[in-house]
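Entry 14. Ran structure prediction on the chain below.
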Amino acid sequence: MINPQLHRQAVALDSQQHRQLKVDFPVADWSAAERLNAIFVAATEFADAGREYPIVFVRAGRSPEGRDLVAPVAVLGVLPEQNLYVEAPEGGQGARRWRASYKPAVVQAYPFCVGRVDDERYAVCVDMAWKGVGNDRALPLFEADGQPAQVLKAMQQHLELLESEIQNTRAFGDRLLELDLLRDMRFDATLPDGRKHTVDGFLTVEKEKAQNLPDNVVGELHRNGMLGLVHLHWASLGLMRRLVDWHLQRQQAAQPPAAAPQTGQPS
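Output, structure tokens:
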């Protein structure tokens, strides 16, 4: 899965063309993700991701058959191109850290990702725009004979598993659409100075409609695990308030210190 806000120059790896390529992995400086506002999370990640991020849904285009598609994402910021989980060290200089203990699987894989070759084939790609590519101190991606090195083998396995989970997660989104459970979401927060801040553009599962589903549908969703995913989604929404608080903290930190009042001299 290629995310243009993260993978700015995704190139499919080739054992001949990239035989000497090295990559600094795992990532220690997350400055490449500073403009990443939201990121896909698979259904299997809801339990871990829901403790750290608000999980919502977004419209994800249409299938080849013409059906609407939705995808769950972890919200990372309250403004476009804002990632509140990437934090600069004190003083603003140095490596940017990721401030949550759990990183979504797409982020864990960075700078690697999967790109589609055709309808059936995928290729492992690397973000050539990332400063950790080509670093002499980094890890080689290929052995001298052209076979994948250990880091690339591990990443191939990670990405193959993620790709299969994407397909399973799509079935979850399809069922929510079939049941007409998704509604546009609007989160309003009152700032300390009384102003309102609104976060929208996402979808959420409507509680009243979900709680009034027929018993046989509730039983089906319980047995296939989807009902549990819905509850994890609802529980995670409380973290929107924390995002707003982080946003305010960042704004305040960016403001220049107030000048000390000057005392007048007696005439």
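The chain has a mean pLDDT of 89. Will compare against last week's run tomorrow.
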